[in-house]
Amino acid sequence: MDDSSLLKQFVAEAADLVESLQADLDGLAEQHAAGRVNPGLLNRVFRAAHSIKGMAGMAGLEEIRDVAHRFEDLLDEMRMGRFRPGPAAVAAFSDVAEGLGRLVAEAGRGGGREAARLVALVESLRSEAPAAPEEDPAGAVDLDDSVRKTLTEYEEHRLLENIRERRPLYDVRVAFDLMAFDTGFRALNDELTSTGEVIGTLPGVGTADPMQIAFRILYATDDPPEVVGPRAAAHGAEARLISHYPEAAAAGPVAEEETPAGLAAPSVRVEMLELGELALLTQRLALRASELISVYSGLAPAAGLTARQQFDLKQQGRVIERGFLELEERLVDLRLVPLGSSFARARRLARKVALELGREVELVTEGDEVRLDKAIVDHIAEPLAHLISNAVDHGVEPPAARRAAGKPEAGRVLLRAESSGSRVVISVTDDGRGLDAGAILRAAAERGLEVPADPLSLIFEPGFSTAREVSSVSGRGVGLDAVAASVRAFGGDVGVASEPGRGSTFSLNLPTTLVLVSAFLVEAGGFPYAVDVNHLSELGLVERAAVSDSAGRRTVPWRGERLPFVSMAEMLNLPPRPEAGPRLPCLIARAGDRLAAVAVDRFVEERETLVKTLGRFGPRLKGVTGAIDLEGGRVALLLDMPGLLAGQAAP
Amino acid sequence: MKNVLVVEDSAAIRAMIVSIVETLPDIKCTDAEDGLAALKALPTEKFDAILTDINMPGLTGLELISFVRCHPNYKSIPIIIISTEKTEADRQRGLALGASDYITKPFAPGDLQRVVREHLGL
After folding, report:
1. pTM (predicted TM-score)
2. Which of A59, A186, A201 is facing B63, going by the closest CB pair?
3. CATH 3.60.10.10 fits domain A145-256
4. Interchain pair A51, B10: CB under 8 A
5. How far lies A644's CA from each of A321, A359, A456, A531, A637, in Å?
6. Domain segments of chain A: what residues?
7. What is the reported pLDDT for B75?
């Protein structure tokens, strides 16, 4: 192999490695922010740096080797639990990876300054953390020495780390046919990796058959033997619990010791939906508590309470209400994540687009630490990517045009997040040519569109920005209507400002918190309402004639039973509507362990949607837990079905 | 014709090692991208030496060494570790597990050829 083909192969492979490294670093940043770094992921990140270093060394690319080597060292310290980076350092990892990507792309053409910058960056991240004392497994774990000798240094560290965390360890043994062992082995390995950690894989003993190959897998998982046994058996393997932690020790040192590698603090993972449900439950409890207090207050004079006692009662009521408010706020806070990793992704995108188009663009970010609901962060990824590539593609001019306009060749795009109360504004500002208001107005006239007070906002109109003549002349890309629609769908809004020749700013004005639910939309009393599908058993059509009324309690026959019947309009005290048709659309709703039929005007549809909270300190509307934005600026209230039905049953 | 199994997860380095080793007369190489692929290759051909990286996904070089050393058919195959200065501790472990020799990346082609010839008795 000659040198140039080695170099080509190196560049291709290293570029792939850098790309997967970047994706893994995004995942690492997210896990780090959530307080739990998966050791397998961290190890993969380390290995990528290690491989880049190895390849660069063999290809004689000393600068790349030096940067990768230092980065590898740092990551090694981190995976060994000796370096515990903060969020800023983890975010800087992405910069290092990007820099490596650039050096690789220019391999052999000398990137001296960039390499020196990266070396300085990596070195600035270093900080010594006292190594967690590694305990000897003797006594706690039933492991022969030959096993430990086969583990690499890192694997041994992981073994000790798992012991320190008192995680159950298993010796999983399996034998496969030598000629076709890899399929079975990979399936078993995947299963174990997805449910725990594979610390090491060792030769098994006791297979007399030379056509068989036996493995022993050292496996750590939180699951107990009664779960792990069948899990292994499904792959023809046997699992034996080999850790025996003394009870007393489990509660003692672990809780006080400094946190293990990559962990901000001991933590558990919680599903986002679970958090949403907890918030809803809190709201319902708060409502019940305030009702209870008002009942007591009403009884107070009759019960002959003194003024002092009545005052105390009210005070206690307020304390409980405040407690619930705080609980709800803190639950909502748990859903917030910093924008840092979204911004890191945007920075890479800007660089990529600029590279493809031959532009020179510097992307600056501000407000990486601003936090937003995870659901919103996920939803704005695409709109944000759109605005960034538009800014680079259509906003910033080609270098020659910039020179002619007396601007620096390198364009500047500012991505900025700013928090103001319950809203966050994310803006993308470029110093490019700006929007051509005249061209926008002409295109609007051609289409017969009405011109609003702010003519620039026309570019968010459906189909408008897709017009080629407008895009090229106005300096704007396509698809801004899609950006606007997806941001508005969860209660956000878009804005634009521009100065010809100086640049443009596109902004997303977003709510900070949202709750995602599967909502079923209906109409009742002529208005749109939504119900959480978790509160529904099914949908039905009930014969109007089958509704029977006995002593004011109405019931309908349903699947061999009689269910309480109520109309949603009545529940909500809406004026009665003229009744139409012999069959009533009914929600068969759950109220505790019972069902009830709730008649509505009509069914609309089910959708996964984001729910806006009604404002922390706003008045609590009875029976309402939030609001959902509908098309055309309309809003549907999300009903607290169990609460409303319980209220029906009471009188 | 001697047969050398080259186990290395970087395709570029693997190709380079193969090209260096195959410039020696009467030697051909078989390559594997990780320890598991190497285990799979072992029963299919007769190998005269194994060159293996340590840090690999799936099955590491050390694990591969212990598998090879405990199998009656393969336990006497010479194993040469390709290590880096970073993995010195692991290289020691590999030698303790029964590896025959090591070479440190980056290496000069002549050094690799010398080590391979030595263990093949050429």
Report:
1. 0.51
2. A201
3. no
4. yes
5. 20, 59, 46, 11, 13
6. 3-125, 145-256, 272-335, 337-511, 515-649
7. 85
